Amino acid sequence: MFKVAFLVTFMATIVANVQAEKKIVCYFGSWTVYRPGNGQIQISDINPSLCTHMIYTFIGINTDGTVKILDPWADLPDGGGKNGFGQLVARSKQSPGTKALIAIGGWNEGSAKFSQVVRNPQTRSRLVQDVVGFLQRYNFDGFDVDWEYPNQRGGQPSDKENFVALLRELRQAFDSRGYILSVAVGAAEKSASLSYIIDQVARYVHFINLMTYDMNGSWNNFAGHNAPLYASAREQGEQAKLNVDAAVRYWLSKGAPADKLVVGIPSYGRSFTLANSGNNDVGAPTTGAGAAGPYTRQPGMLGYNEICESMRQGGWTVRRQNEQRVPFAVKGNQWVGYDDVQSVDEKCNYINKLNLGGGMMWSVETDDFRGICGPKYPLLTKMNEVLRGRVPSDPQPPPNTTPNPPPTPKPTPSPPPPSSGLCNKEGYVRDPKDCSIFYYCQNMNGQWNPIQFHCPDGLVFDPSILACNYRDKVPGC
Question: Residue 383: phi, psi to the nearest 5?
Fold first, then answer.
């Protein structure tokens, strides 16, 4: 009798431990294969054992309710492409228990097409069917819906109900096939209250990735941290709600189960140019975005890898905002608020304290994945130490599943900006003189800021798919 009771207790403990293991969700930005130098990552560089879920971003949506592949060369194996879909699925299988998901949407996709598709039952049903076919075709384990955001950015009020209908129909189609359904959501109350019927969203998904970052940025006229854990005493009103704790407690108060909430931890910071380098505390006046980094090449943000490499070169002063539990760094008139190993440790302990579902990183390619500043993946490693109580070893990389070695992007020096007439709306545009060069036009404080990219050798930018393609498939090149 004693042996039976012991066995029952032992098995119950094992089940409880398995059920309690926290999720560590790792987003991968597929476009980062185009980054130069140390910023260029390959899927084989990702350690899948550090992730319970790996999410490939992004695919898009067509107005007829079908899935759109955004970058065939990066995503597929056809014609010597990089086969990103296949590479990520194969890499995930090197780590027992790690699941591979595909995400639809993202910031650049916006809201208008989602809104049009989901309000019509026929096109919504077609989308569900096409997603199921897509997952079967490319062997993904699940699907992440990153609609940014229902009832905003070109959406309409009925989006809130239609979003729930989409999730309900996806879940019904997924359950019989064993697929995972997750969402990435705007976390702060001001945005979430406009976009989501939270208790109903939570009912149909396996977990919710809270985008608890971008709380402040160069759209402000003051230096504010990207992802503070708590508010500071100086913050009032809506500003006091722009932090991880306020967002989590709002979602809990609206009916989201704690074990479905996965807290986003950014592996990048938001940067600013100070109005006066002598006034450099949190809240100091700013004149705009901080200088672009050498890899991300986007004013107003710096990857953790860019930050740590720049600090190794010297000149930065690192300080901590003790109330918000996060660091910031200053060098001359440059200011950046970011997360480091210490703040990640505190956020993960917060996740454990509230019995939340786990942590999510956006995104793995801006952690120090090469180990330039120390051991590889310091932020992701810390997440595993605190949330899972261990740091799994890196399995052997999978064999190359690409039929022919594709061309690789070449590091290029930062060129002078193109003529001011190149940009007239936000989005991608091809260089008028060189088809292999393209720009992302970004509106920064009323002025157009073109961010330059280079296609790999032999490829040119195709405006019809907003991605690099083979020259013979692109008219005019």
Answer: -60, -40
Q: Is 313 exposed, middle or buried (0-12, 13-18, 19+ CB in 10 A)?
A: exposed
Percentage helix, strand, coil for the chain under 3-state DSSP, each rounded to 5: 35, 25, 40
Q: In the structure encoding, which two tokens stand for residue 103, read together? A: 């995400």
| Closest of 175, 164, 236 to residue 206, by C-alpha | 175
* Residue 366 · residue 269 · CB < 8 Å: no
Q: What is the pLDDT of residues 26-48, one digit of tens each?
A: 999 999 988 999 999 999 999 99
Whether 148 sits among the annotated catalytic residues: the reply is: yes
Strand 326-331 versus strand 317-321 pairing type: antiparallel
CA 338/CA 382 separation, integer angstroms: 15
Q: Measuring CA to CA, which residue among 254, 289, 270, 293 is closest to residue 215?
A: 270
- Which residues partner with 23 through β-bridges? 358
CA distance 171 to 166: 9
Q: Which residues contact 19 (CB under 8 A, 6 or more apart)?
A: none
Mean pLDDT, the chain, whole residue set: 89
**Cα 225 from Cα 215, distance rounded (Å):** 7
Count CB neighbours of 19 within 10 A. Answer: 8
CA distance 413 to 104: 32
- Helix axes of 378-387 and 341-353: crossing angle, nearest 10 degrees: 30
Encoded tokens for 8: 């029952």
| pTM score | 0.84
Do residues 146 and 185 lie in contact, with contact meaning Cβ atoms separated by under 8 Å? no
Across 408-446, where does the E strand assignment appear? Answer: 427-430, 437-444
Exactly one of 21, 109, 148, 346 is catalytic; name it.
148
User: Which residue ranges of the chain lie beneath pLDDT 70?
Assistant: 1-20, 397-420, 442-446, 456-457
Is 210:263 a contact under the CB 8 Å cutoff? yes
Cβ 411 vs Cβ 456: under 8 Å: no
Pairing of strands 268-274, 261-266: unpaired
